[in-house]
User: Fold this.
Amino acid sequence: MVRTKYIIGSATKLDIIKAKTELERDSAMLPPLKQRLSIAKHALAILVGKAPANWLTPNFDINKLTLPKELPLSLPSELVHNRPDILAAEANLQGASAAIGIATANMYPNIVINAQLLQESLTPGALFNSASTAWAVAAGLTAPIFSGGTLCAEKRKTELAYDAALAQYQQTVLIAFEQVADALAALSNDSEAVTLQRETVHLADTALKLAYKSYEIGAIGLIQIQDSQRTLARAELELIRARRQQFLDTAQLFVALGGSPIAVN
Assistant:
């Protein structure tokens, strides 16, 4: 149309260059979108256990995809407790705690005290003879056990392992809370972005309808209508991107919760 206007003298070469620029800019948007569509289809094929070349991906209509009517802005911390990484860190902490108990129990002397030993030690002649008392015998038997502080070192080792497990557990919980908080904040921002983008689409659609009316009365030409159509198409594309991000962040929230269900009132 610009070229036709140029031929009849109502447009300049600059108008033709501008029109070409718009066309190239619009055309340049297609390859990246096609690439992302191809990647998404291949990912879906792998998800269902099929080779991408042997599975026909069904078409999806984004307007038919739905989310919960109301996503929560806060969640009880108990939901995060079911995350696999937290459960694993918790089990590791419990194991480290049990190891301290075992190491402490191992320090108790492992001897057999019988009646004969006590009777021999409690005779009048040997009662105050430290070499023959039960305690002296016990001390003699257990001395090699404590030699070099081996058991004390083992106990200290388990205590340090517990401290490390506790620090790991605390770090895991903090990271989990951070991820959930980030997902909730993202959902709040996504909701606002989708609302604003819907309004942008509505305004662009209204502008296009007004452009049609102006064209009918001869106030504008087809090029102005095309500009309005392009504006509407771009607004719709941005709305799709905003909704896509909302779906991704919703899925990320479920991942951050370890797959825990969200109860929405």
